[in-house]
Design brief:
With 157 residues, the chain is an alpha/beta fold. Helices cover 43% and strands 22% of the residues. It has a single domain, classed as SPOUT methyltransferase, trefoil knot domain (Alpha/beta knot, 3-Layer(aba) Sandwich), CATH 3.40.1280.10. The two termini are 28 Å apart.
Length: 157
């Protein structure tokens, strides 16, 4: 099973990008993992929120494949503790979908039909984070889950 993390737009803060890349490298020691960046919309200022979500959805759908298990990172999704997330990851990996795909939407979230395509939605917190920070936080949680599943001392309970 391959794990894909799809995000919209490049990280403009080089420090966040460096740390994100570091965790992606660490995750690669455990599972095949890839972050795919969908380009930001051009002239987004001239579009309504709904138009932005629709255009992002069209680009996102091009990155998805039949059989993907799609998980949206959404503020209204289910929250989990790190240990629970690790156990959830283990179950997802055992279920052996071809690809486990996590998606971070644009600044206004997801178009309704993207919500319908997803099998699950998860939330990292009730707090709001920038789209750049959420990337770092999420890849750290994937890495943390892998160390928990492998009995390594990274996570302290």
């Amino acid at each position: 099973m391959k794990t894909i993390f799809i995000v919209i737009g490049k990280t403009t803060d080089s420090r966040i990008a460096q740390l994100t890349d570091e965790y992606i490298g660490r995750i690669g020691h455990y599972v095949p993992f890839e972050m795919q960046v969908i380009p930001e919309l051009r002239n987004a200022k001239n579009l309504s929120q709904e138009q932005q979500k629709e255009q992002e959805a069209e680009m996102l759908k091009k990155s998805l494949q039949p059989g993907d298990y799609i998980v949206l990172l959404d503020e209204h999704g289910r929250e989990r503790r790190s240990i629970d997330f690790a156990q959830w990851m283990q179950k997802r990996m055992a279920a052996a979908p071809r690809r486990l795909v996590f998606v971070v939407g644009g600044p206004y979230g997801f178009a309704p039909h993207i919500h319908k395509m997803a099998q699950e939605e998860i939330s990292l917190s009730q707090m709001t984070f920038s789209h750049q920070m959420i990337r770092l936080l999420f890849v750290e949680q994937i890495y943390r889950a892998m160390t928990i599943l492998n009995g390594e001392p990274y996570h302290h309970e």
